[in-house]
Amino acid sequence: MPPAAAFETNATKARPRGRPRKSQEERDDGNRRQALLRAAAKLFRRKGFAATTTRDIASAADMRSGSPFYHFKSKSALLYAVMEEGMTNALERQHEVLLHPDYAKLPPQDQLRQLIGVHFDVLLGPGNDFVPVMLYEWRSLTAIQRKAMRQLVQNYEGLWLPVLQALHDCEFLVAPVGIARLLLLGALNWSVQWYDPRKDASLNDLSDAAIQLFIKAQ
Amino acid sequence: MPPAAAFETNATKARPRGRPRKSQEERDDGNRRQALLRAAAKLFRRKGFAATTTRDIASAADMRSGSPFYHFKSKSALLYAVMEEGMTNALERQHEVLLHPDYAKLPPQDQLRQLIGVHFDVLLGPGNDFVPVMLYEWRSLTAIQRKAMRQLVQNYEGLWLPVLQALHDCEFLVAPVGIARLLLLGALNWSVQWYDPRKDASLNDLSDAAIQLFIKAQ
DNA sequence: CCTACCGATCGGTAGG
DNA sequence: CCTACCGATCGGTAGG
Description:
The structure is a homodimer.
Chain A: H1 10-13, H2 31-47, H3 54-60, H4 68-71, H5 75-99, H6 108-124, H7 130-136, H8 143-158, H9 161-169, H10 177-194, H11 203-214
Helix pairs in contact in A: 2-3, 2-5, 2-7, 5-6, 5-7, 5-8, 6-9, 6-10, 6-11, 9-10
Chain B binds a DNA duplex through α4.
């Protein structure tokens, strides 16, 4: 069995193309899968993977208990799909930053500030439950899923190294680059546990504070 | 029903004092409860609370499936007991540091270094599964347990404020003290996710790197 | 995508 | 602390 089979969804081999929904308003199909993903992300984040039932998810997506398995072959495949969606989006958003024509002209501390801003938004922005699930549900992945996800995460973490190295070179960062990256991303990722948009500072102020804390310059 | 009832263990009202074990070697009783706590901490950390069965725990403590409920009234009470044990120990260890006669004479960056060192040890030291469970299983607590645990955590976090304020006063820390504490503790807490004693730096080197990263001085 | 269902497992308990 | 057990729930499936 090829590794990819572990993440297969039934929808790929049996998409009901061209069959219109019978509901009062004709919505485009295929958004049902998205609805499941969104519902799952929200519930996995709030209650955790093991404590969320497929019935919870079905209900949140306005389906009956058996229906999620029409779109995903297992609860586990649904978890993986949530995480993959989150990481793909996060990578895209950071690539937009890195490839922007002005980015290269910025001093490294401003480059880092941009990465941090996007990272906070991916973690804490409204409706962004996908990456938090990825961060906190590693344990629930199968070994083979974990291996595939590690690839995506390593790509993402790798994006941070050049700017951290540049900061190290001009002594705005003294700690070893590798450990600094682990501690820095940890500080950001942990915000998922405490950040409350109604009480805490804005994501911009948060990003500024992070720069102040980590970088030896103003 | 008084709040404390939620955390009650059966052992307190029915400790089999004076009744010797029937096994070949007479071990002191009461260590059975500790064995359960340790087994639960280890399993909760590795698999998560919801994915761990009380049968897993019983088996790891060399008991049969029903026996954990002789010592703890519910799986949930067992989780709370694990967390409480972890936080009590962490608070004790930090108090030892703070009350040491030499501590007050240290410059603030060295004071912080000491707190960080103990924190890493509480999180990453061998067999220290209790605090990691506390950090990553908040969701699994009942509302009433969460409230009680929040008290302990606030006590612990409060220990860090004076030294952070001192560092802020001498401009070794520029970020707002409140946010700095959240980010700093997040960086440390996240280490639970990646630290591998066989591959990564020693806890001492880790602590040094953290000081380098967070403090604007050497 | 729904209905109806199965087999397995799980937290917890009675009674000793 | 064990034995034997219960009621509920859960992931998943057949058949339409």
